[in-house]
Amino acid sequence: MSYSIAEAARRSGLSIDTLRYYERIKLVEPPERDAAGRRAYSDDDLAWLRFLTKLRTIGMPIRRMREYAELRRHGEAAAPRRMAILVEQRRSVRERIAELQSCLDVLDYKIDHYDRICAGMFSSGAVREEISA
After folding, report:
1. Strand 32-33 relative to strand 39-42, pairing
2. Cα(12)–Cα(10) distance, integer angstroms
3. Contact present, 65 and 105 (Cβ < 8 Å)
4. CA distance 47 to 42
5. In what order do the strands lie in the sheet with 39-42?
6. Mind listing the pLDDT tens digit for each residue in 1-47?
7. DSSP string spanning 39-75?
8. Where does the record place a coiled coil (predicted)?
């Protein structure tokens, strides 16, 4: 299947400008061109774009993404280094998840604290009269 740049942008969730930027910085190979000279993205191109989007979502820097993309061009010979990049990124993601979990624990504690305060306020007559007034 072949997709125009607009359709590739829609399907990947990236803007047309981002697709052109990724091509310019060599994160993506230039897509094939149709008979009119327009970009024609393949299903494989879209799968690669979805993967790049995941890498950005997990906080991988563009320079590391570019390194990974360059290694991808070298095929299986570069597999050990590509895997090392992903293992390092996984470590970073797990650290971030632990940090976020710690923040979530604090939020849960504070919400429970305020829930108890509010429950106490609503059980007192003064607040109830004020609310009903």
Report:
1. antiparallel
2. 6
3. no
4. 9
5. 2-3, 39-42, 32-33
6. 899 999 999 999 999 999 999 999 999 999 999 999 999 999 999 99
7. EEEEHHHHHHHHHHHHHHHTT--HHHHHHHHHHHHTG
8. none
Query: Tokens 């004020």 appear where?
Result: 130
Tokens of 44: 């494989």
Q: Give me the amino acid identity at 124.
A: S
Which amino acid is it at 90? R
| 0.85 exceeded by pTM | no
Give residue for tokens 């393949």.
42
- Report residue 65: phi and psi, to 5°: -65, -40
With contact defined as beta carbons under 8 Å apart, do 75 and 42 qualify? Answer: no
26: tokens are 């060599």
